[in-house]
């Protein structure tokens, strides 16, 4: 024992105190603090999302419209990349050195230690070639995916396309979608996204510190299997669709054919169309840009977005309403001199033709403008001129029962309403109460403010074919094995016309094809009832319209065809419609007395000359830039101190904005030929 | 003679031996987990580090037994010679040593084994220090003896510093506890503690505030003892030194310490965060230990351990394996075993009649304590990473054998406590 004996307690005390402090810290990080467990899990777990195959889409006969094809993404993990033959890789996947650097820097920015996409969507052939050489490119790997493929390249506007989700999609889906996911952008892909996309699976794997996979986590207890998207059966008939697209090539316009007994759309042509295969694969971006810049607007879905004055094709509807309202009887005659006087204007029949004595059937068959103006005038003036507004409203309601002026709720996005003008519109245009039946007489013959989409016109024919009701048109008839997809698709929508009133009108429509304006489009052995129309177009030649259904008894198909800038309905729309009807009813096209052949119409080019519109555009642009300059000068005046370059940049921006407004005008001028009332 | 022989095994402190064996076994199993290779599953497969560790344990056992069979008085007598040999080895390693990770600390022995003389330097220094301080008329309180003792400790420190191996160098600082026990003024401990505190706080906070606080404390103490002129004088001088130190910290930090050292301190103090680079090791180590929770993830089931997220895990960061796979229960067990061992060593030291054994015993306790606290402390991010092994547990032959020598020499000396050395 020495005199410093008691110091053992000091030393022991210090030791114990420090070790206890260490233990306290350990207690804190191991038991109290939960963060480290989370960190450890995120270190070691890699959650891979397993993408289900998107549902295929079939036509009504089970033929494939869309299916999936395997493609391969090249991934790169920058951390694992070692020097290799860069040129060889570039050559194999078809990029240059700059492209390589760009992609590699991008991948490195995304994550220096995890694999990110280097090059998307290699074909099977490229994949096979690359797979053999892959060992020479350390850090590169290949991940299989699927893309959409369209074996027949038809019905692009119906099918639409898919694309990577945008930030807005992600936000709207409450985080269901993640960056890089695909979503339906247009068409059926968008409308049925929820059933087509299927259910994603999740696979949780373990990785070591180098990112090397080390097997599944918890033996896959938390993994889920992806479930493929549902198979959609569309109502389209692929053969009819193909024929329709062939007939409409080099023309602007659309064909809509509907099965009246179900509302199923058989043919849905929008022209110009494009090969839907262009919307997938590595060239997608370039193709998209090309499409957007195409002045004929292939992305404009004409069957539901284009709105035309129905022209004479509206006349049967006018007649039906008149009959139902007891305004006129089918046998009542009218003497047509070729000119009919309404108020202080004169309505001419086509080509100044005088029809002489016409009854209802004959008026329909020969498209007598005078007759229908007279009938319309009688309806609107029924309870006296003082009650024009009420009378007109009643007429308008009757028209709208046929599905005009409102969306038909087709199972596709972006449908247009069409237009049936309201009394209010006329109150605003003229003075309240200052318009009369004579003012709006153009409506009687489907002109004026009336606008309808081809879908609405086809639906109108369905109603006539069914003698008084229609089923809501739709494009998808079955999801998976479920055959009734919406209750409203099997409900009859009555239009408030007694079935007995249809026969005189249908007689007239039969005569149109048998001996009337469309007689050259007569189909051997089939009685087709139709009506030609000529929609006036202030921007160029009139649009050729034809609506029909066939056969007369127990109709199987109702159709509307619009060929833009092609003049009379009988010349272009009617023959095209007759081929579709014949193909559908007979399965083949037989030679015609008139000598019309499919090839003749398929090869005809009716694309409008765009130089006419270029002038319009120039005018528009000049006006915009003047406006922009004006706004600009006000701005400059208000803020004198703002430096000139800023003002200049604003000006430039505005001019650019004005320039970018162009497409909207293009569309209007190309397709929305409104007539002057 | 015969009675002495018979009493030999009774005199061996079996409890210490038992603690030693448990720690070695724990170490071996945790190394197995840390560098587990599914292709070489056997824990005695010598192509792996856990197989090698088994060999080291066997060699250590032989070394331990040999030490127990030595004649006690040789140990004291050979202390200077052993010290000289180690010093020569330390010089040799600077010339022919192998540079691993920036430290020229290893001499290649061939066959995949190598010797780290600095590990043995602790043992030699403890022995010579014990030998010197147990000499007659040697008092640490006298400046001459103190300087001599400081020189014995300082010389190997200097040589190791040249490697440069900061961790091993700092281990020698722990011998201040030995000097304290032998009569060194407690002010040395207090001042050491004060300077460490000042260093850390002046890095963390604005030095101006710290000076203000120091001035306030000094003023308060002077106010309390205003009669005591001597105290006032000491306090003022102390204050001046402290302020000078605070101002020199910045200088030390930028000019004396090396870049990697300042980085480690910065990360430790949270001045900078760099979880992918310099701070990666400690961060992953904390994640490993922290995710162990109470009972751990189970043997060979630690994700951080098995998927090698913590570098150096079998050596300096072996405690991660304990923390992750055995949880707080495991940490508590290992730390308790160490605490128990250290307290036992102090108890052994105190029951000696011979000052040599007592001084030596305190040396052993201090070195063990320093290693345990610093090693575990750095794995949980409370002390800077200075790379010293966890005794008996970390992978490494030199470390294990030198600690075995350190401990078994004490056991041997203790077994002879009834006879005079």
From TrEMBL, chain B:
The keyword Cell wall biogenesis/degradation applies. Pfam families: FTSW_RODA_SPOVE. The chain crosses the membrane at residues 12-31, 51-70, 77-96, 145-162, 183-201, 207-225, 232-253, 326-347, 359-386, 392-411. GO terms for cellular component: cell division site; plasma membrane. One of its GO terms (biological process) is cell division. GO terms for molecular function: glycosyltransferase activity; lipid-linked peptidoglycan transporter activity. This is Cell wall polymerase. It comes from Mucilaginibacter rubeus.
């Amino acid at each position: 024992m020495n005199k410093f004996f008691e110091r053992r307690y000091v030393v022991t005390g210090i030791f114990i105190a420090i070790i206890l402090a260490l233990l306290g810290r350990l207690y804190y990080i191991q038991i109290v603090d939960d963060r480290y467990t989370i960190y450890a899990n995120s270190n070691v777990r890699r959650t891979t999302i397993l993408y289900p195959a998107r549902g295929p889409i079939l036509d009504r006969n089970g033929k494939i419209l869309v299916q999936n094809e395997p493609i391969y993404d090249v991934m790169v993990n920058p951390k694992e990349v070692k020097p290799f033959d860069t040129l060889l890789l570039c050559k194999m996947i078809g990029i240059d050195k700059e492209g390589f650097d760009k992609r590699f820097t991008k991948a490195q920015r995304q994550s220096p230690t995890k694999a990110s996409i280097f090059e998307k969507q290699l074909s099977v052939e490229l994949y096979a070639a690359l797979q053999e050489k892959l060992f020479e490119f350390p850090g590169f790997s290949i991940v299989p995916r699927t893309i959409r493929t369209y074996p027949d390249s038809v019905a692009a506007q119906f099918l639409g396309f898919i694309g990577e989700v945008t930030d807005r999609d992600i936000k709207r889906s409450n985080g269901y979608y993640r960056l890089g996911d695909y979503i339906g952008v247009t068409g059926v892909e968008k409308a049925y996204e929820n059933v087509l996309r299927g259910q994603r699976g999740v696979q949780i794997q373990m990785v070591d510190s180098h990112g090397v996979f080390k097997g599944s986590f918890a033996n896959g207890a938390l993994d889920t299997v992806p479930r493929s998207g549902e198979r959609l059966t569309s109502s389209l008939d692929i053969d009819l669709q193909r024929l329709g697209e062939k007939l409409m090539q080099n023309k602007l316009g659309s064909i809509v054919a509907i099965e009246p007994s179900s509302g199923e759309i058989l043919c849905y042509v929008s022209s110009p169309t494009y090969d839907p295969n262009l919307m997938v694969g590595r060239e997608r971006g370039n193709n998209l840009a090309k499409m957007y810049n195409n002045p004929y607007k292939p992305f404009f879905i004409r069957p539901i977005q284009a709105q035309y004055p129905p022209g004479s094709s509206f006349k049967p509807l006018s007649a039906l309403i008149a009959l139902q309202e007891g305004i006129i009887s089918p046998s009542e005659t009218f003497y047509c001199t070729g000119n009919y006087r309404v108020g202080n204007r004169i309505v001419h029949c086509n080509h100044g033709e005088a029809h002489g004595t016409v009854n209802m059937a004959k008026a329909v068959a020969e498209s007598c403008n005078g007759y229908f103006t007279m009938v319309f005038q009688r309806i609107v003036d029924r309870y006296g001129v003082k009650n024009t507004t009420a009378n007109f409203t009643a007429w308008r309601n009757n028209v709208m029962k046929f599905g005009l002026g409102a969306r038909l709720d087709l199972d596709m996005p972006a449908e247009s309403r069409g237009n049936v003008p309201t009394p209010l519109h006329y109150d605003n245009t003229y003075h309240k109460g200052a318009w009369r039946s004579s003012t709006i007489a153009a409506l009687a013959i489907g002109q004026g403010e009336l606008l309808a989409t081809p879908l609405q016109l086809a639906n109108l024919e369905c109603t006539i074919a069914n003698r008084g009701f229609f089923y809501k048109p739709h494009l998808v008839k079955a999801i998976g094995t479920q055959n009734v997809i919406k209750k409203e698709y099997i409900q009859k929508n009555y239009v408030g016309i007694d079935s007995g009133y249809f026969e005189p009108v249908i007689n007239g429509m039969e005569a149109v094809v048998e001996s009337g304006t469309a007689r050259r489009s007569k189909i051997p052995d089939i009685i087709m009832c139709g009506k030609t129309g000529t929609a006036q177009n202030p921007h160029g030649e009139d649009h050729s319209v034809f609506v029909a259904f066939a056969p007369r008894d127990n109709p199987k198909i109702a159709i509307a065809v619009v060929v833009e800038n092609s003049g009379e309905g009988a010349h272009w729309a009617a023959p095209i419609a007759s081929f579709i009807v014949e193909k559908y009813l007979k399965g083949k096209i037989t030679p015609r007395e008139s000598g019309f052949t499919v090839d003749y119409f398929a090869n005809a080019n009716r694309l409008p000359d765009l130089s006419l519109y270029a002038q319009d555009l120039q005018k528009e642009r000049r006006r915009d830039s003047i406006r922009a300059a004006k706004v600009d000068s006000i701005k400059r005046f208000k803020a004198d101190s703002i430096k000139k370059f800023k003002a200049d940049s604003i000006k430039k921006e505005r001019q650019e904005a004005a320039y970018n407004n162009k497409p909207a005008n293009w569309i209007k001028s190309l397709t929305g030929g409104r007539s002057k009332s | 003679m015969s009675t002495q022989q018979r009493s030999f095994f009774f005199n061996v402190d079996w409890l210490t031996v038992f603690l030693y064996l448990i720690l070695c076994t724990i170490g071996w199993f945790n190394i197995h987990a840390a560098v587990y290779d599914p292709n070489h599953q056997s824990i005695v497969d010598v192509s792996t580090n856990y197989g090698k560790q088994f060999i080291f344990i066997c060699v250590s056992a032989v070394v331990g037994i040999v030490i127990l069979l030595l004649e006690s008085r040789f140990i004291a007598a050979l202390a200077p010679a052993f010290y000289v040999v180690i010093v020569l080895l330390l010089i040799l390693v600077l010339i022919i040593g192998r540079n691993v990770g920036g430290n020229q600390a290893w001499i290649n022995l061939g066959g995949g084994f190598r010797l780290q003389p600095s590990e043995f330097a602790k043992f030699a220094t403890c022995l010579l220090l014990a030998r010197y301080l147990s000499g007659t008329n040697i008092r640490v309180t006298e400046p001459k003896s103190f300087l001599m003792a400081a020189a014995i400790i300082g010389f190997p420190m200097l040589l190791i510093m040249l490697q440069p191996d900061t961790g091993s160098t700092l281990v020698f600082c722990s011998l201040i506890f030995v000097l304290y026990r032998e009569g060194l003024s407690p002010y040395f401990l207090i001042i050491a503690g004060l300077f460490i505190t000042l260093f850390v706080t002046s890095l963390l906070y604005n030095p101006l505030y710290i000076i203000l606080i120091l001035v306030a404390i000094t003023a308060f103490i002077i106010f309390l003892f205003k009669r005591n002129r001597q105290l006032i004088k000491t306090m003022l001088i102390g204050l001046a030194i402290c302020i000078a130190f605070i101002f020199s910290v910045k200088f030390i930090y930028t000019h004396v310490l090396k870049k990697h050292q300042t980085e480690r301190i910065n990360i430790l103090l949270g001045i900078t965060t760099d979880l992918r680079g310099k701070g990666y090791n400690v961060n992953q180590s904390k994640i490993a230990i922290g995710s162990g929770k109470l009972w751990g993830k189970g043997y060979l089931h630690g994700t951080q351990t098995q998927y090698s997220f913590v570098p150096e895990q079998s050596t300096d960061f072996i405690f991660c394996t304990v923390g992750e796979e055995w949880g707080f229960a495991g940490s508590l067990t290992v730390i308790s075993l160490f605490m128990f061992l250290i307290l036992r060593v102090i108890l052994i030291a105190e029951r000696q009649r011979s000052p040599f054994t007592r001084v030596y015993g305190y040396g052993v306790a201090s070195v063990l304590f320093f290693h345990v606290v610093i090693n575990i402390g750095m794995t949980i991010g409370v002390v800077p990473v200075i790379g010293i092994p966890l005794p008996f547990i970390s992978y490494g032959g030199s470390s294990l054998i030198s600690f075995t020598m350190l401990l078994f020499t004490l056991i041997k000396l203790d077994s002879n406590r009834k006879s005079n050395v």
